[in-house]
Design goal:
Length: 56
């Protein structure tokens, strides 16, 4: 799951990771902040095929 927006921090990622873990879902999540991704090919892929799950 890649987060895109202003004011995103590693602390927020940790809180979200803990909240998702507490749901006891049979899934695991990889979380990242779009602006902190160094691999341009990966960013292009996310921009091309990524889906918005939540928008505020």
């Amino acid at each position: 799951m890649c987060l895109l927006g202003k004011g995103l921090t590693s602390n927020l990622i940790l809180k979200l990771d803990n909240a998702l873990d507490e749901l006891m879902l049979p899934y695991s999540f990889d979380l990242s902040i779009f602006e902190k991704i160094d691999n341009q090919n990966f960013k292009d892929h996310i921009s091309r095929v990524g889906m918005v799950l939540y928008q505020k």
